[in-house]
């Protein structure tokens, strides 16, 4: 696939907890596009982002932002109003997919297996456990495992959880409480309407949190995952269905938890990420490379998808 030479704005940075990851993703994308002969304008998103984009007047915007407000529909709505063509998912999909409660409401009725649980006000957890231990607490609308805590019977958070203990309850007023699913971390990328493959993530210690994702050497990636064929097929099918049900564009990545003692019944979708990382340690580039798609080609495929979607909507 060959794209015409374009002027591409790479939108990165911002002010979410995932700013450092976004900067790495954006720089990787920008460098790859320049190597392929495109004119690139790097934009580290500030409050003047609309003005910067208007002055830049790109052919297309590569949205390399992670977290809010770049992944939650806010920036997407702004770019829609400006008439800009941009990569990845649009406003409605972004609003739903970043919110774990809305995602469940969109997917579970269609038979997508997801953990149970409920939304709790943070003050509640300091009075009593919202679920039987072990359980997981996570922010409702953050990605990259930001602010995730696993609460076990012998955890050092206290019982009930102490307000002084370090955890997501110190940053967020509302949290999602879900039953803890033992087992293995799996993930599948979708690109161009096709599920790529399954990767197993094996953190060297603890669980697959923010540090494990973005610190070299802290997590082993087994790609392709060494799992039964029926589980692999289920991951591919579920990732594509999530992508389609949510209305994702470009690429997405769906994360799973698999209790290998329960077979297929132990496979659960955790979330679908509409703007997966594009860093050297990121999973979508790794899966694409394994299938013979190099980094630069991957970036151009995502841009081509955005241009085709814009043309189709015209």
Brief summary:
With 314 residues, the chain is an alpha+beta fold. The chain has helices at 19-35, 49-56, 74-82, 91-98, 100-107, 122-125, 210-214, 229-246, 283-290, 295-313; strands spanning 7-12, 39-44, 60-63, 118-121, 135-139, 149-151, 174-179, 184-191, 194-203, 219-222, 251-258, 267-273. It has a five-stranded antiparallel sheet with strand order 10-9-8-11-12. Strands 4-7-5-6 form a four-stranded antiparallel sheet. A three-stranded parallel sheet has the order 2-1-3, sandwiched between helices.
Task: Summarize the topology.
Layout: E1 7-12, H1 19-35, E2 39-44, H2 49-56, E3 60-63, H3 74-82, H4 91-98, H5 100-107, E4 118-121, H6 122-125, E5 135-139, E6 149-151, E7 174-179, E8 184-191, E9 194-203, H7 210-214, E10 219-222, H8 229-246, E11 251-258, E12 267-273, H9 283-290, H10 295-313
Parallel strand pairs: 1-2, 1-3
Antiparallel strand pairs: 4-7, 5-6, 5-7, 8-9, 8-11, 9-10, 11-12
Helix pairs in contact: 1-10, 4-5
